[in-house]
Design a protein that fits this description.
The protein contains ten helices and no strands. It is mostly helical. The protein has two domains: 67 residues, Tetracycline Repressor, domain 2 (Orthogonal Bundle); 138 residues, Tetracycline Repressor, domain 2 (Orthogonal Bundle), CATH 1.10.357. Helix 1 packs across helix 6 and helix 9 runs antiparallel to helix 10. The chain is elongated.
Length: 206
């Protein structure tokens, strides 16, 4: 039937376009993943051709997705921030207490900060020039902490008198002060201290 033949032809014609879009998405994801690893591994400027090579694509493919270094940095930063915020609900489901979930989330936030360290110069220049949109990073991080503190108040594992903004400041202080040290053990110990400070006082604590 003519109508059937026409519909089949339309489906056949659409298949290459769908395949091309799928390949493009995979390449973009590979580039973001490779860039994230590169930025996390070194605080120095990352070569874009090295990112393309690690992703298994040519430099032309990288530039088709990210025409400038600023575009790549902005995409990595945005994806990482989204991932950090999105990681909180599953952690609350996974752990028996909100205090344990918050501690696990702090480690994820530390990873984000490590990736950000490798993009700092480009981010600052991009924000100053307007080439990179200024994200509501602190607001989103603080809102996430507030949610976890609220759960901790409900299950009794965290104090109810804590300003989530102060927790954000403490975490930023830890990450910024340990940048030159780059010692995972030191960061872990400091994050443990923060969580201990957020726990309710025991009956013998005065």
């Amino acid at each position: 039937m003519p109508g059937t033949e026409s519909a089949a032809t339309g489906r056949d014609a659409a298949a290459p376009a769908r395949a091309a879009r799928s390949d493009a998405r995979r390449n973009r994801d590979r580039l973001l993943s490779a860039a994230r690893e590169a930025f996390a591994a070194s605080p120095d400027a990352v070569r874009l051709d090295a990112v393309a090579k690690a992703a298994g694509v040519g430099i032309g493919t990288l530039y088709r997705h990210f025409p400038t270094r600023e575009a790549l940095v902005e995409a990595v930063y945005s994806a990482e921030l989204d991932a950090v915020v999105a990681s909180a609900p599953p952690l609350l489901e996974e752990h028996r207490s909100a205090a344990a979930a918050l501690r696990a989330w702090m480690s994820r936030y530390a990873e984000f900060f490590k990736v950000k360290r490798g993009m700092t110069d480009t981010l600052r220049a991009g924000w100053a020039s307007g080439a990179i949109a200024t994200p509501a990073t602190r607001e989103r991080i603080t809102a996430t902490i507030a949610t976890m503190l609220r759960h901790g108040t409900e299950d009794g594992s965290l104090r109810s008198d804590v300003d989530p903004g102060n927790v954000t400041v403490m975490l930023l202080g830890i990450f910024l002060s340990t940048t030159s040290i780059d010692a995972v053990d030191t960061v872990d110990q400091l994050l443990d201290l923060v969580v201990d400070a957020l726990r309710p006082a025991g009956p013998t604590d005065g």
